[in-house]
Design a protein that fits this description.
This protein has helices spanning 2-5, 17-20, 45-49, 53-69, and strands at residues 12-15, 34-37. It has 71 residues and is an alpha+beta fold.
Length: 71
Amino acid sequence: VAAKAGVPILPVRLFGSYEALPMGGKKLNRHPLRVSIGKPFTPPYEELAAKGKEGYAELAHLIMAEIAKIS
């Protein structure tokens, strides 16, 4: 959606979600959650779009890399 719109992306990371609701868990645990917001960035959409499906995969990796930088 972001690639089609050509808008900046705001990376956001949520900490504590696994402890609050573990995989396969059926019960929500009381555990603090922390939301961290990174700096907006605008990927090179035109360059990535020219690569077709590979460009979309590269965009996904760029977004995940920006999210991973958030601490």
